[in-house]
Design a protein that fits this description.
Blueprint (H helix, E strand, L loop, with lengths): L6 H4 L3 H33 L1 H8 L2 H38 L13 H14 L1 H9 L22 H42 L4 H10 L1 H29 L5 H12 L7 H19 L4
Amino acid sequence: MRIINSISDRQNELDLLQTQFCARHLYDVATVLNYITWGLCIASSMVLPLISNTIGAYSIIIIAIISVANLAVGFKSERFVKLGAAYKMRFDYKLYQFEECNDYQGITLKKLKQIAVKIIHRYPKSYEKAIMHNGTDKPKGVKDWYVGISKELSQEEAIKKCQEQNGFFDKEIMKIAWWVFIGIIGVSIILIGIFCREKTVESIALFVLSCSALIILIIKEIYRFVQAYSTYYFMDRVNEESDIPAKIRQKVIDDRRKLNLITPNIIYHFKTYKLHSLLKAEEHTQI
């Protein structure tokens, strides 16, 4: 007897909506911290060399302070990403009815519940809006997280389709984010070239020192992009194999989520509706 699934209904149950809201909130906070990190790095590399003649030896002290601040902000961002990944893992495991787990990205279920209570009670208005709207509404919410999961699908087929959607959204957004990132690097190189023209050795040395945090951040970001693309490639290969268990496919998704690689919210803002529309259109295309 073929057993139908209830994923499309269960994903909108209150406990799962609360879990998804917490994940969304934590990733949003991590995104803001990521913007601050980039802002500090750019300020250090572009502004300090211009005012170094005025502040003199204090330039080195300011660079050191900015570097420490970057480390602190980066650490907090990674922590929020890890927490967000834990909530997404909890959401999927409960939705797919996997066996109960007490370790989500190294965080216990009790700890996740304690943090969720604090987030929901601290941001009640955002919470109410989020659980009342879906991904194409204005404002966007967390309802109907997975699109077009027919009840006629078996549980295994439905889970596989949800997992494929995870990869689809991430991969499409990442393609745009990569070219935005390349553009930022290109502009930075041009600005560096302009600044270094006809400068003294001391000025160039100070500029390179002030750019050190930005250079390290760019290298880290490139490394994370490479990791992410490797994961997507592996996910595509895994999804092509029908006999691979759902838990194995899920582990690949969980590993990608804990990478501290955050795409700009503005990309999601402009692309989410189109991507949802593509998924819905796919459901009605019979070939």
